[in-house]
Specification:
This protein has about 575 residues and is of the alpha+beta class. About 50% of the residues lie in helices and about 15% in strands.
Length: about 575
């Protein structure tokens, strides 16, 4: 008995979610002996109530192709002397009419049909019928349903007219909030999927979008944009979307886990069951009549099996250290708890008539928000790691291109910067000037004061040279006591600029390091225009530098003023003493 009751509770939940309204097991108006029924052929319009013999015992049969009549006495449900609103939870039918019989003998007809609910639809898949005569007492309410798909899916409630408006407002606000969260989660996850190329985020975004569409159609908010889908088409669409949502949720969970985190057989089982739900959902979408109820058991087995398989995947993945599995477990905890609650508590008349569907809707919104938060947290961590890696790469690049002693560019960094400046000069037809600088008698400084003092002198000179570093000038230490400065600025002229550099370096204060000893430099200058060859320009400046050395040091020489060397069989660079 307990097992049968448990299976029936699952059937209530799954039928209610997949097909629209849940079976009326414990609702405002139970399908019991107080609700009498009759079945007749479909004939003309609402001229008058026909003479029908109602019976109140056995469930109705043969109504799928005919007309089902239901009659109830509102006084039996504790609403004596009050004007009630009849709420019919939407199901699959062609036409629905409600007849209110008043104590004075008058009769009022209200009717809706598939594709035209008018102003009778309410949030939460409900159709409302309120008597227009609020003063005369009701003696009976009769429903006429043409071609009803399933009597088990019919759910009725009688609500006091004043409370019905409050229910509508509250339920509409709750459903609107859940749909807003789902839509935001769908857009966010899909944008993350496109930005990060993560498949599971794409499946998660598609799942959230599908549940959003399901919620919009189930709640009947979709009728604001497409009133023609009211009734059977909306119920069929909801069934298709709910089956698709199960498959997309399965794909999202399994694709989020690395292949080495879960057994391939377990992953394949979850995917197969998810596909089975979608496949069974195809005939369930189109089904009418008894086929709907016959598809319930296999569909329930497929959904429950898929849920168990996905849960097993997440548990195994989490135990093997998968961060995604832990996040998915946290996200799925609320939907799973919601499903467990539906087994223990009858939700048919809770949540202002929304029942299990609104619980599923809010659980889905929670899942979407949690997974969006988890994805953002992981991406933030990855972004931080990326930024740290880029910073480390930048530091490594700087170390590779800068002299560790003086902190200005080294030979490699100078060559890269010089090539960029030469390319700019070529475009702008500017003159390229190269200054090769050598400290005079630097070996004597090292010999007399030590290498530490020599290093301090190098750093002092490099710091002064670095002041000329700009978008049009680059400075570097080429090695030892040799520096270089390349500029494409036209003003001042190269020789004048070189003299400024020589004088500025000569004015540096080294007294704290080497006493009153003065440090001077020699500079060789070379210039070029249009397609400058840096190697050739360096050779010219280097030749001018050694001319300055031979000429007595502490001076500037231009390559144009230095005679070209005479070619010999074996040319050697002359040695100097610094």
């Amino acid at each position: 008995m307990a097992r049968g009751a448990l299976l029936q509770a699952w059937r209530v939940l799954l039928l209610g979610w997949l097909f629209g309204p849940a079976p009326a097991l414990a609702v405002g108006i139970p399908l019991d002996s107080r609700l009498c029924h009759a079945v007749s052929p479909i004939d003309g319009a609402n001229a008058a109530l026909p003479a029908i013999r109602f019976q109140c015992r056995n469930p109705p049969t043969g109504y799928q192709s005919g007309r089902l009549w239901l009659q109830l006495d509102p006084r039996r449900y504790g609403l004596r002397g009050e004007t009630p609103t009849l709420l019919v939870h939407q199901t699959r039918f062609d036409r629905l009419a409600v007849v209110f019989r008043y104590a004075d003998g008058s009769v009022e007809w209200q009717e809706v049909r598939a594709g035209a609910f008018g102003d009778h639809w309410r949030p939460g898949a409900q159709i409302a019928f309120t008597p227009r005569d609020q003063k005369t007492a009701l003696t009976a309410v009769t429903l006429r349903v043409d071609r009803l798909a399933s009597y088990a899916l019919l759910r009725l409630r009688l609500v006091r007219a004043g409370e019905a408006g409050i229910e509508t407002a509250v339920l509409g606000a709750l459903i609107g909030a859940a749909l807003t969260l789902l839509l935001a989660g769908a857009v966010y996850n899909l944008s993350l999927a496109f930005g990060t190329r993560r498949a599971y985020l794409g499946w998660q975004g598609a799942w959230a979008a599908t549940v959003f569409l399901w919620g919009a159609i189930w709640s009947q908010f979709g009728l604001l944009l497409a009133p023609g889908i009211a009734g059977t088409l909306a119920a069929q669409t909801s069934t298709a979307l709910s089956a698709l949502a199960v498959l997309l949720a399965t794909l999202s969970a399994t694709s989020a886990l690395e292949k080495d985190r879960i057994p391939s057989l377990l992953r394949a089982t979850a995917l197969a069951l998810g596909i089975a739900v979608a496949v069974i959902g195809i005939p369930a979408t189109l089904a009418r009549g008894p086929l709907i109820e016959s598809l319930g058991p296999p569909l329930a087995v497929a959904v429950l099996g898929d849920l168990a398989a996905v849960l097993a995947c997440l548990i195994v993945g989490a135990r093997r250290g998968s961060v995604e599995a832990r996040d998915l477990l946290a996200a799925w905890s609320v939907p799973m708890a919601a499903l467990a609650l539906t087994q223990l508590v009858d939700l048919g008349t809770l949540f202002w008539g929304g029942g299990a569907q609104i619980l599923v809707l809010f659980a889905s919104a929670w899942q979407t928000l949690w997974l969006s938060f988890a994805a953002s947290r992981r991406l933030a961590r990855l972004r931080t790691e990326r930024d740290l890696a880029r910073a480390a790469e930048a530091r490594a690049s700087r170390l590779a291109e800068h002299d560790p002693l003086t902190a200005i560019r080294n030979r490699r960094g100078f060559l890269d910067a010089a090539e960029a400046l030469i390319a700019t000069a070529t475009r702008t037809q500017a003159t390229v000037a190269l200054l090769v600088i050598d400290i005079d008698r630097f070996k004597a400084i090292n010999d007399e004061h030590g290498h530490d003092a020599g290093d301090i002198v190098l750093c002092t000179i490099a710091t002064r040279l670095a002041r000329w570093e700009s978008a049009h000038c680059t400075v570097a230490r080429l090695g030892g006591e040799e520096f270089a400065l390349l500029t494409i600025a036209a003003n001042p002229p190269a020789l004048e600029f070189a003299e400024q550099v020589r004088e500025a370096i000569g004015a540096c204060d080294h007294r704290a390091t080497i006493g009153e000893q003065r440090v001077t430099i020699s500079i060789g200058v070379a210039e070029g225009r249009q397609r400058v060859d840096l190697a050739k320009l360096y050779r010219e400046a280097d030749r001018a530098l050694y001319a300055a050395k031979r000429g007595g040091r502490n001076q500037v020489r231009h390559a144009d003023t230095v005679p070209a060397p005479v070619p010999v069989a074996s040319e050697q660079r002359p040695a100097t003493t610094g």
